[in-house]
Amino acid sequence: MIAIEKNDESLVALLIHNIKNQKVLENQDINGRSAIHWVVWPFVFGSYENTKILEQLLRGKFKHDLKSKDGATPV
Residue 56: which residues within 8 A CB-CB, separation 6 or more? Predict the structure, then answer.
């Protein structure tokens, strides 16, 4: 999520390429937001709407249907 916040496509790609534990694909922050939430949702502190990172996450099999604590999916 930090790589997404920094909008660093190459770091995101490197991290995805080196995932050893499949549970990483389902990681959520304290508000229940996943990596895909971070890419597609505008937040008070900024928006990280980067389609290249979104494509990387989806190709990397990150879960696109995880719900945040308020019940919202990224879609």
Answer: 9, 12, 13, 16
Each domain of the chain, given as residue ranges in start order, spans 2-59
Tokens for 19, please give them. Answer: 């995932």
Dump pLDDT digits (tens) for 14-59.
999 998 888 888 999 999 999 999 888 876 665 667 889 999 999 9
At 57, phi and psi to the nearest 5? -65, -40
- The separation between the first and the last C-alpha atoms of the chain, rounded to the nearest angstrom, is 18
- Kindly list the distances between the CA atom of residue 16 and the CA atoms of 25, 31, 47, 61, in Å, as whole numbers in the listed order: 9, 22, 21, 9
Enter the pTM of the model.
0.82
